[in-house]
Write a structure and sequence with these properties.
single chain, 186 residues, mainly alpha, 6 helices
């Protein structure tokens, strides 16, 4: 017996496959185009870091517009801050730490602890389209990562164990700020 798909079933399958393929391509292009604009506007922002970070977020593969991508970027920032705060807490448990490094870690822990609710406020402001307020929130988070890193530089010969994490927080903040500013100007 010859079994064929009825036309409506075949048509629905075709639409699902073509729509998801097109949708994924659009999201990929949106990320690349957005990161290109972000990197052009901010010389401290790495295009490759931007693309890699945004593409790593599972929800980024189905974004339709810049506004959705902006929300993803702020949530990535919050996730980074939360992870870094936990990492700092673990590092601080080391009994053999230099007292200066321990003090810097304590300061960084406080900075990141304050930055996490600030990022949540940025999310709330962003959802409400209060882009100026979201900009201020994310800017203060960016300052927290810079302040943390700078604290280790106050004593010669001390190497920050948080350089990569602070740089990542800075970059993620820069991505969020750039997207927020693009939306503010539209």
């Amino acid at each position: 017996m010859n079994q064929t798909f009825p036309f409506p079933v075949f048509f629905i399958l075709f639409l699902l496959v073509s729509t998801s393929t097109f949708h994924g391509t659009t999201a990929h292009d949106l990320i690349r185009q957005t990161c290109k604009k972000c990197a052009q506007r901010d010389p401290n922002l790495s295009y490759n870091f931007c693309v890699t970070s945004l593409q790593a977020a599972p929800k980024s593969h189905c974004v339709d517009d810049l506004r959705e991508l902006g929300m993803i970027s702020i949530k990535l920032l919050r996730r980074n801050l939360t992870s870094s705060r936990s990492y700092i807490k673990e590092l601080s448990k080391n009994k053999k730490l230099n007292p200066f490094v321990r003090s810097c870690l304590h300061d960084c822990f406080d900075l990141y602890s304050d930055a996490i609710p600030t990022t949540q406020q940025a999310i709330d402001d962003y959802k409400s389209k209060h882009y100026d307020d979201a900009n201020i929130d994310v800017s203060s988070v960016m300052d927290a990562s810079t302040t943390c890193e700078d604290g280790f530089k106050e004593q010669d010969g001390v190497v920050s164990p948080l350089t990569k994490r602070n740089n990542d927080a800075f970059q993620l903040s820069a991505i969020s700020l750039s997207i927020i500013n693009m939306l503010r100007l539209n």
